[in-house]
Structure formats: C-alpha cells, structure tokens
Amino acid sequence: MTSIMSTSPAPTASDPRPYVPERRGILFIISAPSGTGKTTLCKQITASVPGIWHSVSYTTRQPRPGEEHGREYFFIEEKIFQDMVAKNEFMEYAHVYGNWYGTPRKALMDKMEQGIDVLLEIDVQGALQIKKKVQDAVYIFILPPSMETLRTRLQSRASDTPEEIQRRLQKVKEEVWSYREYYYIVRNDNLEQSLKELQSVFLAERLKTKRLDMHWLEQNFILEKESKPGDRDQSSIAKGSTAHHD
Fold first, then answer.
1. Domains located in the chain, CATH noted
2. Which residues contact 81 (CB under 8 A, 6 or more apart)?
C-alpha cells in the first residue's frame, strides 16, 4: 500500500469550488489496553476531525450493556466468523480474551481509495499483523495514567469477574512491551488533553510531504508558465497607454 495521491481536474469557471489536491486515505491505527478509554477517544476524534471514517470490527463476543450491533462491533457467531476467515474477508483477525475479532477488508480499502481517512481501533496483536502489510499506516498507542487507575476503571465497569480483571491487567503488561512498534504514544490521564494530542497527530500526518499531491504542486508552483520578456513589455505599454488616455 502506498501513499501516492491521485489527481483530479482543476475546477472550471462554472465550478466555483476551490480545487483541493487529492490523496489516498490514511490508515490510523489506535491500540490500547482494555479500560484505557480508547473507544471514547476514538468516538471524539471521529466527531471532531472532519473526513475520518471509524471502521467497525467483527467479534464473536457477546455485547456489553449499551453496545449496539453495527455501532461498537458487528456481533456474530463463531461459525460465521470462521466462514469469513475462509473467504479472506478480514484484513487481520485475532483471538483475544477468549473471543475472535476481525477487521473487514473491503469496506476499509474502499474508503481509503476514495481518499477518506480510516480510523481502526484494534488490539496490539491485530495491529502488528497489519504493520507487516501496511507500512504507511499511522500507529498510535494509548496508555492509561497508571496500572492502579486502570484496575479501578475495570472494576467500576462491572462487566468482568475478578479473575477476568486480573487476566486483563496481566495482558496490559505484555501489550505495553509492544510500544516500540507504534509511532505515537498518548497517555490518557486527562480526556480533554489526550483528545488534543490525538487531534494534533491526525492533522500533522495529513500535512506530511510524502502525502502531498506532487502533480498538483508541480503544475501550480514549479511548472507554471512564465511570461516572456516581450509579453511583459507589451503589458507595460498597454498599461501606459491606458494611463495616458485617462
């Protein structure tokens, strides 16, 4: 997968809209330990930064209270999930905490081809699978303020048993060791501050030179037709003649 941008014709006189250089959509991948608050941050990023599509993954786990099919996840039976695996419909898939999770390939690729940035919220295992295939994606890791804070958050969620919470906390230590695989680290100590930091990452990545529409830049700033000396002289004469008649 490359970051080469496509181009589109410049607007005509009948089309007053300003020409916007086009590019391939950027894939933003966010991973974080369970209970870190990444889902809340991802929702706020999608709402506050224009032009982002939040990819929805498939899972075989049961929905938690308040979750909806097609919003947080597509909740499906394991047989259906395995059928999708056999048909190569997932960009990545992983077995996490006793359940399967997978990222749908076609919807994600279609959005990126349309120039829409995609936000993918997945675990470390899935992110590392994608990194082997997509070097140009942006990898962001969200840290909790501390292990103790994370423990309190998991307990207050009241959706896991004490044994499950302990298992998740142990998993956190393993996942944090993968931080070197990510390009940005955001510590979610304060939601407002963490959101600002994430917004900065998204906006800065869009401005990177490698994502620029080189054809548009060359046509407008490098290969722009230069006026000949004779043309400038004629222009000066015309201006002078106009001034004389005035």
1. 27-212 (3.40.50.300)
2. 58, 60, 93, 100, 102
